[in-house]
Amino acid sequence: MRSNTLNILGIRVHPVNIPEALHRIADLIQNHQKGYITVTGVHGIMESQRSDVIKAAHTGSFLTVPDGMPLVYIGRAAGYTEMHRCYGPDLMLALMKESVKKGYTHFFYGGKDGVAESLKETMETRFPGIRIVGTYTPPFRPLNEAEKKDLQERIARLKPNIIWVGLSTPKQELFMYEYLLCLETNLMVGVGAAFDFHTGQIKSAPSWMQKLALEWFYRLLQEPRRLWKRYLINNPLFIWNYTLQLLNLKKFEVKELT
Description:
Elements: E1 6-8, E2 11-13, H1 18-30, E3 35-40, H2 42-49, H3 52-59, E4 63-66, H4 69-77, H5 88-102, E5 105-110, H6 115-126, E6 131-136, H7 145-158, E7 162-166, H8 171-179, E8 187-190, H9 194-198, H10 207-211, H11 215-222, H12 224-232, H13 234-246
Parallel strand pairs: 3-4, 3-8, 5-6, 5-7, 7-8
Antiparallel strand pairs: 1-2
């Protein structure tokens, strides 16, 4: 009998697609529960190998969905034929569309100066009737106590159903892991560069490159100085480690939170 999750280098990945993710999100919000979603690819998996805290942030998620095609290929090879890529920007658009019907409220946290506000305008134009109740552009460091209190007070006043977290991996996973319980919201979703994609700061790879798992190469050409280490070191290490796991030459256990 198959498990309802995949163990990929000790990270529990849910073999879902976007419609299934939307269904689970609807159940969570309808039942007044709390959780966060990590939208994870090879980069997130490899960052977790270097830090028990990052690994714990993934383990503590409501859903860890496959952001990259390599994880999808692994899932399908394991028999999860219904598994599809839950690309962060696409998941965001799908949930925004669903929100117009269901009345979910949203809050944008992250991005450079002005990006969250621009994203709010973009989504309100694209999805008439969408309810985006606020934005917050954090500093490029952990929040101090005054900033944390300010954020908590804003969220307590606005009570958004969903907080979209547009930070880089692993910052967004660590933020959601730390802040979920102290913020009055149902769901947090870490979508990385989706803020920049939807506001035109960064161009998305052509669909054919995405389908062939070559988006990393397109991103590398766009931002070589920032991304060369992520792709040229992480990708080969991922392949090596997953091969060891697949051949049972090395164990990667999912460690439950205590």
